[in-house]
Amino acid sequence: MKKKILYIFTLLIIFILTSNVFAENTTTSSNLFSFNNNISIDKDVDGDVYAFGQTISIDNLVLGDIISAAKDISIESEEVKGNIRIVGQKLDINVKNTKNITAAAENISISKDTNSNAIYAAARSINFKGYTNDLYASGETIFIDGIIKGDLNVDCETLVLMENAEVMGNIKVKSPNQPVINSKITLNDIDYEKVTKGNEVWLNKSDISWEIMSICTAILMGFIIYIIFKKSFIEVDRNLKGIIKYLLIGLSTLILIPIISILMIITIIGMPIGIIILILYSIIMYLCPVIVGIMLGKILFTKSRFYIQILGGIIIIRLIMLIPYISFVAWLLSLSFVMGFVSIKIYLLLKAK
Fold first, then answer.
1. How would you write the chain as a 3-class SS string?
2. What pLDDT does residue 84 have?
3. pTM score, two decimals?
């Protein structure tokens, strides 16, 4: 979960950098696109809302989804008929009726008037006072003072069940600390799993199974990538001589591509191309550890057969990705290198033509 939160916040930084480059409000069909430092939406929106900036306030009816990233986000609406997908530092949600809420932030506050189908939240501090069918949360401190008609699934440091907390379904808690209970709920109602702080990844069987499956998927993707782009991996040693150049170009590309893509989307005419670029950009972000793993394997296992190189390199890079803190640095360096590598390859191909 920590790696996923770091991934989300990296994207948030990119979106915030993007929002400072230009300020624009655009309506495409019934959808609203807004990019500005301070955004205030006080009119009904017939479609989806895409808002990225520093502070965002949405106060009216939204008939579609809300997809937003900012430092501070406040949503106070009678109804959001679609889903709410938001990332930020401080999130305040007060929506009387909506579908699913997916949120990641430093602090998340969900008011007592909020009514949703399901909530998926990750934050340092989560304060829930509303009404929902199911709640899945991960964080340091989680306060529950609302009504959950279905299941409550929590992975946290401390869970506090307040006076008004009601859970009609199953309660599952993973935490180093026993839940603090101030409501009618008792410890007998809770499926509590005590975890050792700092060792959750290794002690949790489901996480281990997920990592094994993820490694197998990465290895399969590695073989496919190597077969299709075999020529690009032939001279890995020579490619690595310019590693600083790749990292610098890759970091620039990492920031510039979202800017260019969003500008194209805003022009409406260039929207399909902008969306395709963002999709390819996301695919490269996902595959970057696999590509770096192939290169690492070719360096470390030079005299071995190609399948040993792919297996060894990907397994090593995936194990590095399991180490707290180091994993994020390794992922960011891998992403910058691969972005630079791909950018230079594309440039050389275009230059040759």
1. CHHHHHHHHHHHHHHHHHHHHCCEEEEECCEEEEEEEEEEECCCECCCEEEEEEEEEECCCECCCEEEEEEEEEEEECCECCCEEEEEEEEEEEECCECEEEEEEEEEEECCCCEEEEEEEEEEEEEECCEEEEEEEEEEEEEECCEECCCEEEEEEEEEECCCCEECCCEEEEECCCCEECCCCCHHHEEEEECCCCCHHHHCHHHHHHHHHHHHHHHHHHHHHHHHCHHHHCCHHHHHCCHHHHHHHHHHHHHHHHHHHHHHHHCCCCHHHHHHHHHHHHHHHHHHHHHHHHHHHHHHCCCCCHHHHHHHHHHHHHHHCCCCCHHHHHHHHHHHHHHHHHHHHHHHHHHHC
2. 93
3. 0.57
